[in-house]
């Protein structure tokens, strides 16, 4: 006995979202259109650069509101992090929001060590000899990389020592 033929799929059976546009400029134009903004966006086939044409003042204000609304939580968290670090005399001059993530950026070894202590890292016992010169940055980086996930409930932090500037560490997003 043969199984009955399955009915042809209907519009309700298909996903509601459309396929992602092929180029960044197309994606940006589609987002502008969905938001009711009139803004030309152009880019080459490789989308090396995407250019946004002139915006009417009302569209520019609406775009600014949409960006702020969409990133409100992240921007608020970055602001709070800056304030907390300033309260502990930790300088994070490279702290930025990039692509929706908070990037800590370059930091001096002394500030990274202070951040590790604030996050709960236990300093090495005073009886332990100091690490050899040049390994301070690697030691502090490893300490910070270890304590960060524990302090944040699982978030990881990539830490790397700058070879051209051994007194600086690069902290990831």
Could you characterize the architecture of this molecule?
- By secondary structure, the chain is α+β, with helices and mostly antiparallel strands.
- Helices cover 40% and strands 13% of the residues.
- The chain contains four helices and seven strands.
- The strands form three sheets. A three-stranded antiparallel β-sheet has the order 5-7-6. It has a two-stranded antiparallel ribbon with strand order 1-2.
- Strand 1 (41-43) and strand 2 form a beta hairpin.
- Helix 3 (109-118) runs parallel beside helix 4.
- It is elongated, with a radius of gyration of 24 Å.
- It starts with 23 loop residues before the first helix and ends with a strand.
- The model is unreliable at 1-17 (pLDDT under 50).
Question: Low-confidence spans: pLDDT under 50, at least 5 residues?
Answer: 1-17
User: Could you tell me the strand content as a percent range?
Assistant: 5-15%
Q: What's the story with the biggest beta sheet?
A: 3 strands, antiparallel
N/C terminus separation? 60 Å
Number of strand elements: 7
Shape: elongated
Give me the Rg, rounded: 24 Å
pLDDT averaged over residues? 78
With strands numbered from the N-terminus, the spatial order across the biggest sheet is: 5-7-6
Helix/sheet category: alpha+beta
Helix content: 25-40%
Write the H/E string, N to C: HEEHEEEHHEE
Continuous helix count: 4
Helix and strand arrangement:
Blueprint: H1 24-34, E1 41-43, E2 50-52, H2 57-87, E3 96-98, E4 101-103, E5 105-108, H3 109-118, H4 136-152, E6 159-161, E7 168-171
Antiparallel strand pairs: 1-2, 3-4, 5-7, 6-7
